[in-house]
Amino acid sequence: MSATTAPPANTHGKAAAIFVCVLAALAGLMFGLDIGVISGAQQFLQKDFGISDDTLGWIVSIMMFGAALGALVAGWLSSQLGRKRTMILGAVLFVGGSVVCGMAPTPEVLLVGRLVLGIAIGLASFTAPLYLAEVAPESIRGAMISMYQLMITIGILVAFLSDTALSYTGNWRWMLGVIAIPGALFLLGVAFLPESPRWLMMKGRDPEAEQVLQRLLGNRDAISREMGEIREQLKTPQRGVHMFFQNSNFRRSVGLGMLLQVMQQLTGMNVVMYYAPRIFQGMGYDTESQMWFTAIVGLVNVLATFIAIGLVDKLGRKPILYAGFVVMAIGLGVVGTMMRLGIHTHGEQFFTVGMLLVFIVGFAMSAGPLIWTLCSEIQPLKGRDFGIGCSTFTNWVANSLVGLSFLPLLNSIGQAETFWLYAAFNVVFIGLTIWLVPETKGVTLEQIERNLMAGKALRRIGQ
Ligand code: BGC
Questions:
Q1: Structural domain includes residue 390
Q2: Tens of pLDDT along 94-146?
Q3: Distance 341 CA to ligand 1 centre (A)
Q4: CA–CA distance, 63 with 113 (Å, rounded to integer)
Q5: Is residue 219 part of a domain?
Q6: CATH code at 369?
Q7: Does the residue 296 lie in any domain?
Q8: Structure pTM?
Q9: What residues line ligand 1, using a CB cutoff of 6 Å?
Q10: What is the Cα–Cα distance from 95 to 463, expressed in whole angstroms?
């Protein structure tokens, strides 16, 4: 993605920064709302429709398949229609999908609504960060990725809280429908945004790009510097697909990005995000406690994300990932063991909930934000859009497989064994991190690219 020059600290620059922050916030929030909203609604809609666990698993997971599909076409759409129109399309589908979900007369219609919602979030989750990287002033671009993840976690929390509030009446339709409101706000926000100047120049629409930069930067010198810089970058066209077939070093970085996202999903985080009330039910809690504990899970997820934000540029990526995988393995291992031993007393219940929260802390302080950061750092400039597209697509596919397989796993191998399985994955990921993951702290993207293309081992491309 582009590297623009820092604008002078004038009021225009500040206004632009506020604009893009608000957009990042809303896009991340929608992502999170989408993930979080289904957990509280499922037991009520399962009862209402009288559907099996298998059908329920599909209702949960079809959204992620839709998101994979959305992420797949987002690259093409955002280069053809432009970033802004792609985001508008995403927002319209988001609002439409939420309304269909809330009003669905049958499980089939609900499936369609969830699929549409997924496509919307796939479009937005690819295009919004791309737009941000192209428009955000340099000084705030680094903070943007962390902020995006933070907003995802806040979206999840808000969805958990609204589910909890609505659970007293068991109104799953409102739970699913109400997220149309933030969707409409996003639509409104995007409608006021300018198109990305980089995209406009890609299409040869330089005078329009200049007008946008006038709004964003204000200052003549800054505008011509910025336009010169974009022109320079456009000399390196995105040739991801071509490069993927021609260059084995690029295939390595694309493969690593995809593997990182598989690792993120196989930590088991989304099992808790989608099925937390069900897990608390397995620990012997009634519906009200299930919902409140789920809200606490959401809160801990938000708070622990600050640990990553505070430490990522001090300690580096790898130490935090190691710590995260160890904490997650312990958390899930102990939860599984408690389920095997049987949870009888209040003390045992609290302890098991506590260990599940330890697992959440492990994820939020490490793999949650850091995998996204790494995925955007390891791709060479010419193939960055393609590389990030591949890893984002993989995130959603792996995400949906995790969502789809959880209930069958519970019903076949058992609760304890399912948690042990995810604990074991986390142990394997410690090894994979040692073997394959580079430390990218404090290294320029150009240096990473030079090392990759020189054929250095993946774990050394940050040196
Ligand atoms: C992951 C999501 C997950 C969320 C939880 C994100 O980084 O990609 O799948 O639900 O973190 O906070």
A1: yes
A2: 999 999 999 999 999 999 999 999 999 999 888 887 787 777 666 665 566 67
A3: 30
A4: 9
A5: no
A6: 1.20.1250.20
A7: yes
A8: 0.87
A9: 35, 149, 152-153, 156, 264, 269-270, 273, 301, 368, 372, 395, 399
A10: 45
Q: Which atom of ligand 1 is nearest to the CA of 265?
A: 9
Quote the pLDDT of residue 53.
93
Structure tokens at 155: 């979206």
**241-254 burial by CB neighbour count: b if 16+ within 10 A, else e?**
eebbeebebbebbb
Specify the number of domains making up the chain: 1
**71 alpha carbon – ligand 1 mean position (Å):** 15
**How far apart (Å, rounded) are the C-alpha atoms in residues 263 and 421?**
13
Report d(CA 55, CA 461) in Å as an integer: 45
Check residue 8 and give its pLDDT.
43
Range of the domain at 93: 6-193+236-460
Query: In the block, which residue shows the tokens 């100047």?
Result: 197
Location of structure tokens 């069900």: 278
Please report whether residue 316 resides in a domain. yes
